[in-house]
Amino acid sequence: MPIVTVIGDGQLARMMQTEATELGLTIRLLAGATDSSAAQVTPDITVGDYTQLADVQAVASGASAVTFDHEHVPNDILHTLIDSGINVQPVPDALIYAQDKLKMREKMQELGLPVPWFTNVTDPAALPSGKPICLKAIRGGYDGHGVWFTDDAPTLAAELMDKGVDLMAEDKVELKRELSILSARRPSGDIAQWAITETIQTDGICVEALTPAPGLTDEQEETIRHIGRTVAEKLGVTGVLAVELFETTDGEILINELAMRPHNTGHWTQDGSVTSQFEQHLRAVLDLPLGSTALTAPATCMVNTLGGDKEQDIPAAMRTVWETYPEAKIHWYGKSYRAGRKLGHVNVSGADATTVRARARAAAAIIVGKHE
């Protein structure tokens, strides 16, 4: 059976391993440590450094495909793999737009897709002052890291650039809510899309995802689906692509971020879709027929379980959840406790959005110790 090398050892790789087992595939993992989230459940692991060519070559050799649970592998390493005949999916020419926020914004603008006003920060003094601005590190930011909101962009930008941070600036959008569209594309070109998701972010971290997103107009839905298809096709993305979006207070849809791998906003697919994003990603990178993305219930809500103020007795909390909410599906990452850390998530599916959202929130609250 095919071997798929996954570079990265977090919860996304862990959940790919679960699906690989069902598909009869072998996951070969490049992990940073033997006790990492994915290494705990993956038999074939190599401990190494994804920034070192020799380590990456060692796990890539003989694999049917090489893919990722993060976007941080240096592109020169990936080009070296491709030059030696290794099947890398997605290719670095696509990944660059998930690695570099400025290049992504410029490419989206070139493709005629909607983005907020933005600029490369070369002279902090030229930035607007007295209005809300979002400053972003061009590379390396995630889960709220590398993002700063300010009404005094010139001063803050100068301070950050003095520390060596390369910056872009964009308008702080007047938000109604945030949304996400997940698509999967095979190298041969077939694309499948899931239902559009409404997300809630706290301190830059996705804490909740509700699918299908309620209240979208037909025009908004077609705009969002067009964005997902266009990005996948024009950038040559393979595997799962997540496009995070803003819906403004006047109903405009704007692109926020891209991720070229399974994504937090798609965890609901494990229990709310015929084919999960993790299974679909593996199918796609191997250029296999894509699975159905039909909903298995009218509504599904995913709530992340972030580490609370103090560590909980997780087995006891899980038992309480299952006794109280037997329909709740708990997905645990095997990570050590840290306040604010993503430790797992809960999915609840059912007949209506209001009920599944309330029950998923309540179940997650039990696990993190915030329930009454």
Category by helix and strand content? alpha+beta
Distance between termini?
A: 49 Å
Average of the residue pLDDT scores = 95
CATH superfamily of the largest domain: ATP-grasp fold, B domain
Please outline the major beta sheet: 9 strands, antiparallel
Radius of gyration computed on alpha carbons: 20 Å
Shape: globular
Helix tally? 11
Give the quaternary arrangement of the chains. Answer: single chain
Strand tally is 17
Instruction: Please indicate the count of domains.
Output: 3
CATH class of the largest domain: Alpha Beta
Low-confidence stretches: none
Beta-strand fraction estimate:
25-35%
CATH architecture of the largest domain: 2-Layer Sandwich
Helix content: 25-40%
- Helix and strand element order: EHEEHEHHHEEEHEEEEEHEEHHEHEEH
CATH-defined fold name of the largest domain? D-amino Acid Aminotransferase, Chain A, domain 1
Can you give a write-up of this model?
The protein is an alpha+beta fold and 372 residues long. The chain has 3 domains: 3-88, Rossmann fold, CATH 3.40.50.20; 117-171, Dna Ligase, domain 1 (2-Layer Sandwich), CATH 3.30.1490; 175-368, ATP-grasp fold, B domain (D-amino Acid Aminotransferase, Chain A, domain 1, 2-Layer Sandwich), CATH 3.30.470.20. Helices cover 31% and strands 29% of the residues. It has 11 helices and 17 strands. It has helices at 11-23, 53-60, 75-83, 92-99, 101-110, 153-162, 218-235, 269-272, 277-285, 314-324, 353-368, and strands at 3-7, 26-31, 44-47, 65-68, 118-120, 129-137, 147-152, 167-171, 175-185, 191-193, 197-202, 205-211, 239-248, 253-259, 299-306, 329-332, 342-350. The strands form 3 sheets. Strands 9, 10, 11, 12, 13, 14, 15, 16 and 17 form a 9-stranded antiparallel beta sheet that branches. α1 crosses α9 (277-285), α4 crosses α5 and α10 (314-324) packs antiparallel against α11. The longest helix has 18 residues, at 218-235. It is globular. The model has no long low-confidence stretch (mean pLDDT 95).
